[in-house]
Amino acid sequence: MENETPEPEVTEETTEQQTPVEAETATSEEATASGVPELTLGSSLATETEEEDVVKPEPVIRGKLDKHGVAMGTGRRKTAVARVRIKSGSGNLTINGAGLNEYLRVERDRQMVEAPLKATDTHGKVDVWVRVSGGGTTGQTGAIVLGIARALEAYNSQLHEALAAGRFLTRDSRMVERKKFGFKKARKSFQFSKR
What we know:
Elements: H1 12-15, H2 20-34, H3 43-51, E1 64-65, E2 71-77, E3 80-88, E4 93-95, E5 98-99, H4 100-103, H5 107-119, E6 126-133, H6 137-155, H7 160-165
Parallel strand pairs: 4-6
Antiparallel strand pairs: 1-2, 2-3, 3-6, 4-5
Helix pairs in contact: 5-6
């Protein structure tokens, strides 16, 4: 029988088909056995970090609590500065000696001032006294919100998570850009005339 083709040799490797996971583990075992460090896509690192307990640092409390139980916080926004005092009470909110609705005429500003109190479920349970100066209504509103949030955090440190989740403890660092010489304003130049 001259036309017979030789049969391919059957080996153990050809009969066993490895899945991609088995092939990966086999190559990793070979790499560790040879002493060469293995390159991974972070699968083993992710499982190691999940098993360890993540220790969160203690939050920095920027407000103060005096001996009478009154919490104080300072907030700034643009050129406005707000000094806030909070104590347990019936829910009075006074800004520069006037009520909230009298001092802030825009509904959006009033809602922003009440937002940290509502997020921490202290609205109507604490008295808030605010002295604010500088800037305009938007800057003063932002300063009051930050001051209230810092004072609430000093009043009860357990409220930090709710205040941080609502981003009430973040200071908005945007300020007015200074005027440059040779320009009309910060970036606006004088009118150019060719002739």
